[in-house]
Specification:
heterodimer, A: alpha+beta, Aldehyde Ferredoxin Oxidoreductase,  A, domain 1, Aldehyde Ferredoxin Oxidoreductase Protein, subunit A, domain 2, Aldehyde Ferredoxin Oxidoreductase Protein, subunit A, domain 3, 3 domains, six-stranded mixed beta sheet, 23 helices, B: alpha+beta, 8 helices, 13 strands
Chain lengths: 582, 237
């Protein structure tokens, strides 16, 4: 925990949407050592009644840049959003790139808390600067998609402000609605999971514009910071996974996960997709190059990995950006669509509507099993997104409610969710370690909750034989602890690969934090931070009514064998429950 | 003893290549003591002469799998070391993710056996899944263990389907393509549909020693068959 040196400029910006007032507050001592996910979860746990309705006035939406956001530290521009989730009912944090984190930090905003709810049906926007928050009524942009909002604000507002916005899905309070953050090139980066866009919509805030003016983040020790950043950036750039990400993006995983028999296909009925080579990262790279797009692109200023890309259509016009493996898997293999252009078009529509591309695509696959449209119908998916989800028809609202919503509406039993959040791109029957993370995550199924952090370097390597189930649960636990800590820094999780192999990487990261705040943290502090975050989130969920029985995968993962390996998930409830023995 | 997993695709390929036994001495092409790339003389032989700048893009065809005959029971490492474009250091240091019949492999001494093993190679991959599947990974304990096994005899030759992904294909693919690869024509057909713009940079197309047109090639590829594909820079003609 950071206990000293918090800069005087860091404040809590609070907005009350019930009485339309704002305030700037000192940072409570208990919050000072947190940033990013650590801070959003700490604030939500402290100020939100766990049993409240997620879309009611008692829920609070919290934005927090990471501990290093706003500095020149490489890859430090992730913005965390947190609240009680309308999708899962649990505590929730989702983070995104874009300019939001850097600009909020430069405004001296350690966290933005939006609470209450307007008592009429008017919409508002928030304008944030180092001076504070201004609430304005908004009429012109209501009902518009994210790209139109960004374009209109570019014309309306001076300079190049950061923009955080919701699309029609958020306005309609769909449980899969996301919050979008504008990136430097006008693309949208999403705080995707858990329906936080619906919470923003429930506060009737259409967008938040951020103008940092000349604001800068204070650095306690500039020379030390520069040295640490140099070492940190070098470790990132030199790592082979960073190079693969820069060339092929995260979609490089399609062929690999397919080969492992772990690529969920046709609503999780197979682990291999016949059309995998049509949607692979290799094919996508070649298509981007052939059409004059950018295979390498950064989602936020200061990123040195550049795993994003700009994907053009056949006419050479930009179709989408930030075209991620999990989205391509979901719309591709899970829905059996082997046409990258259809998947890209669907991705762009979802970015515009402001809806989670994992949740919505998995929901679409469940709808396909229900017979709403045939598997493989990429054009049909785009049509439903445009004509139903974006317009809020009955079908659109069912799909916009997520995979669980579709399963309930159509009586489907094969619904891949944990705590009502769709399971992403790695079938837990074929890679069981990920299944433990899906089951035990405080936030529903999420592949980013237990990342491949260097647990051994952080001193949280397992003490139990990792080949036993007990050891595997321990390893998953340690990954989640380490991930929670990294999520607090504002760092992109992709720093994990370098941290895993390069002994200089994690020490350099800790050095960056120390140089920023004038602290003397060591690895144990980072581990304790991660443990504290997980326990805080778990306590909120228990108070909200969750029990160990919620830490389970859906029944079909235990009973339906997954081809080609014909395996099932075989961790018992008792074995999973040992996760929380710390 | 090796892991035995049935793949639908491997069954199809096995059926198609039935009858193509390794000859005593190959008539043409590369001959190595333990690995034979493209030597079956009665296979159709397709040569594409392509613009130099497009050659790296053609390596993506290797994601669909090429057929290579080898001595049954030879080690994975020895097999790779015998291929054009590969060397020991590269195999040890760069090929960080290996699948044999869909199972992640750590040991380069693993023998290649079975009716039609499928071997896939990749660089180090991102994500927890990438780390779990990576060779000798700290996180390998989180893999699912496949327990179904079958005994195999260490005799004669076997046909291996080799798939190269990402930077492995980019690094090693040009040498393989220049030497000539055996593959299912369907793999090339899919590749042409996903890479339509490459047609513009295509120079000469030669089928069994005779130049053909792009239209003839399209028609010819409509039929499923095993072919030998050679891709060369047009500038070298």
């Amino acid at each position: 925990m950071i206990t000293k040196g918090n800069t005087m400029t860091d404040k809590i910006f609070r907005v009350n949407m019930t009485d339309l007032t704002t305030s700037i507050e000192e940072v409570p001592a208990a919050w000072a050592g947190h940033g990013g996910r650590g801070l959003t979860s700490t604030i939500v746990a402290a100020e939100v009644e766990p049993t409240c309705h997620p879309l009611g006035p008692k829920n609070k939406l919290v934005f927090a840049p990471g501990l290093l956001s706003g500095t020149l530290a490489a890859n430090s521009g992730r913005l965390s959003a947190g609240a009680k989730s309308p999708l899962t009912g649990t505590i929730k944090e989702a983070n995104a790139g874009g300019s939001g984190a850097q600009f909020l930090a430069r405004c001296g905003c350690k966290a933005l808390i939006i609470e209450g709810q307007p008592q009429d049906d008017r919409w508002y926007s928030l304008m944030i600067s180092p001076e504070g928050v201004v609430i304005n009524e908004e009429k012109e942009l209501i009902g518009l998609g994210n790209f139109a909002v960004a374009e209109a604000l570019a014309a309306r507002l001076p300079g190049k402000p950061g923009v955080i916005t919701i699309g029609p899905a958020g306005e309609m309070r769909m449980a899969a609605a996301n919050i979008s953050v504008k990136d430097p090139d006008g693309g949208m980066r999403s705080c995707g999971r858990g329906g936080l866009g619906a919470v923003m919509g429930s506060k009737r805030v259409k967008f938040i514009a951020i103008d940092p003016k000349n604001g800068k983040v204070d650095i306690a020790d500039q020379a030390r910071f520069r040295d640490a950043n140099r070492a940190f950036a070098k470790a990132l750039v030199d790592h082979p996974v960073s190079k693969a990400l820069g060339q092929y993006g995260t979609n490089v995983l399609v062929n690999i996960i397919n080969e492992a028999g772990a690529l969920p296909t046709r609503n999780f009925t197979s682990g291999q997709f016949e059309g995998h080579d049509k949607i692979s990262g290799e094919t996508m790279h070649d298509t981007i190059v052939a059409r004059g797009g950018k295979p390498k692109h950064n989602c936020h200023p200061g990123c040195v990995i550049q795993c994003s890309q700009i994907y053009n259509d056949a006419d050479g016009k930009k179709l989408t950006s930030g075209f991620e493996y999990e989205s391509i898997w979901a719309m591709g293999a899970d829905c059996c669509v082997d046409n990258l252009d259809h998947i890209a078009e669907a991705d762009q529509i979802m970015d515009d509507i402001g809806i989670d591309s994992i949740e919505t695509s998995v929901a679409m696959a469940v709808a396909m099993e229900a017979g709403v449209l045939p598997f493989g119908d990429g054009a049909g998916i785009c049509r439903i997104l445009r004509d139903d989800v974006a317009k809020g028809t009955a079908l659109g609202r069912i799909i916009g409610g997520g995979a669980g919503s579709v399963g309930r509406a159509f009586g489907i039993t094969r619904v891949p969710v944990v705590k009502n959040q769709a399971i992403p791109a790695y079938d837990p029957r074929a890679i069981k370690g990920i299944g433990i993370t899906y089951a035990t995550s405080t936030q529903g199924a999420d592949h980013t909750m237990g990342y491949t952090i260097a647990t051994n370097i952080l001193g949280v390597g397992g003490k139990i034989d990792p080949l036993t189930k007990e050891g595997q649960v321990e390893l998953s636990r340690n990954l989640q602890i380490a991930t929670a800590a990294i999520d607090s820094t504002g760092m992109c999780l992709f720093i994990a690969f370098a941290a895993l192999d390069d002994q200089t990487c994690l020490p350099a990261l800790i050095d960056l934090i120390n140089a920023r705040f004038g602290t003397s943290l060591v690895g144990d502090d980072v581990v304790n931070l991660g443990k504290s975050i997980l326990k805080t989130e778990r306590a909120f969920n228990i108070a909200a009514g969750f029990t160990n029985v919620d830490d389970r995968l859906p029944e079909f993962f235990y009973t339906e064998k997954l081809p080609p390996h014909n395996v099932v998930f075989d961790f018992s409830g008792e074995e999973i429950d040992t996760f929380w023995n710390f | 003893m090796i892991y035995f997993i049935k793949f639908q695709k491997s069954q199809e390929l096995r059926d198609r290549i039935a009858g193509y036994a390794i000859p005593d001495k190959p008539a043409t092409g590369l001959f190595l003591p333990q690995v034979i790339m493209n030597s079956v003389s009665d296979l159709p032989r397709l040569e594409l002469h392509v613009a130099p700048e497009n050659l790296p893009l053609y390596t993506t065809v290797l994601q669909g799998g090429v057929l290579i005959e080898a001595r049954a029971g030879m080690s994975l490492g020895s097999f790779l070391d015998a291929l054009p474009g590969f060397d020991h250091d590269y195999i040890v240091n760069e090929i960080q993710t290996i699948f044999l019949n869909g199972t992640a492999i750590d040991d380069l001494e693993t023998p290649l056996e079975g009716d039609h093993p499928i071997l896939a190679l990749s660089a180090a991959m991102p994500g927890l899944a990438g780390a779990i599947l990576r060779r000798n990974s700290f996180h390998a304990a989180l893999r699912t263990t496949v327990t179904e096994r079958r005994d195999h005899h260490h005799q004669g030759s076997i046909t291996i389907t080799l798939k190269l992904f990402n930077s492995i294909a980019r690094d090693c693919g040009p040498a393989l393509l220049a030497e000539g690869i055996r593959l299912d024509s369907g793999v090339l057909r899919v590749f042409r549909t996903t890479h339509p713009t490459l047609a513009a940079g295509l120079g000469q197309i030669v089928l069994d020693g005779r130049p053909i047109t792009a239209a003839t090639l399209s028609t010819w590829l409509d039929h499923d068959r095993i072919i030998v594909l050679i891709v060369r820079e047009a500038a070298n003609d």
